[in-house]
Amino acid sequence: MKLPALIQMLASSPVFSTVGREGLSSLLEGVSLVRLDSGQHLFRLGDKAAHFFLVQSGSVELYRPSYTGEHKVFRNMEAGDLLAETAMFVEPCRYPLSARASVASSLYRLPRSRLLDLCRASPDFSMAMLEGMAIRISQSLNRIDLLTIGNSAQRLVAYLVDLYVQQRSAWLTLPASHSVLARQLNITPETFSRQLSAFRRGGFIGGRNPELVLLDLDGLCRSVELPPPNAPFDSADPMDHLGSSLFDCCNYARQRLGK
């Protein structure tokens, strides 16, 4: 295992940028590599949580079983993503979601105890963690607000508008499949598809999955009786929006391999 490269990966994250090389080295004491086959679980909801993870390669799906037997997918974690680090601060510490590999994947497993020791030793790092958690709380309130919008068409349009503001482009890259987004928005996949088709026929959107282009944003908003966005991109703030995924949770520090 190449620890210098792993230290560099962590140092590239905003939350770990305040930690010196010595601190990162102590964080990685006891690190190990976990390899998963496609469909294999990393952990399940309610399991005792003694580790957090950094995805080296592949893709890991975070989900929670529903009472109907279906799985609500919260997001897919990819290479460079930290996984479950925010769950490490709860006592008793248990994973709030299940995680399984979507494809063959490998992850670095880091001890919870080392993360807590680093927080005790570095006030700057602790403040960075608290700031990230505060942003996630604000984004969670925005997501609750989105999910209480009266009808499914309005929820879908509000979500597309948020992607538009986040990605700073009328060309939107959807972060998940239509079926996953439908469940996250509490819309049936059939209704989700019908509404997208209706928006296409109305000339409001174009493109093909996983990309959509907003052809008439104001018209799209008016069609579902929502006001169009009026905040310019350069004044957008992370806490004003939903985050990089509709249901970000258990993590907020994201890096990308090779960057």
Give an overview of the whole structure.
There is one protein chain. 28% of the residues are buried. This protein folds into 2 domains: 3-122, Jelly Rolls, CATH 2.60.120.10; 152-223, Winged helix-like DNA-binding domain superfamily/Winged helix DNA-binding domain (Arc Repressor Mutant, subunit A), CATH 1.10.10.10. Helix 3 (112-121) crosses helix 4. A hairpin with a 4-residue loop joins strand 10 and strand 11. 36% of the residues lie in helices and 20% in strands. It is an alpha+beta fold. The strands form 3 sheets. Strands 1-8-3-6 form a 4-stranded antiparallel sheet. The protein is elongated. The chain starts with a helix and ends in a 36-residue tail after the last helix.
* Mean of pLDDT: 82
CATH topology of the largest domain: Jelly Rolls
Relative strand content = 15-25%
The order of strands across the largest sheet is: 1-8-3-6
Class from secondary-structure proportions: alpha+beta
Question: Helicity level, as a percent range?
Answer: 25-40%
Count of the separate structural domains:
2
Fourth-tier CATH superfamily name of the largest domain: Jelly Rolls
Q: How many strand segments?
A: 11
How many DSSP helices? 8
Q: Provide the CATH architecture of the largest domain.
A: Sandwich
Name of the top-level CATH class of the largest domain:
Mainly Beta
Q: What overall geometry do the principal axes of the alpha carbons give?
A: elongated
Parts with pLDDT < 50 across at least 5 consecutive residues? 233-239, 244-250, 252-259
Could you give the distance between the termini?
A: 19 Å
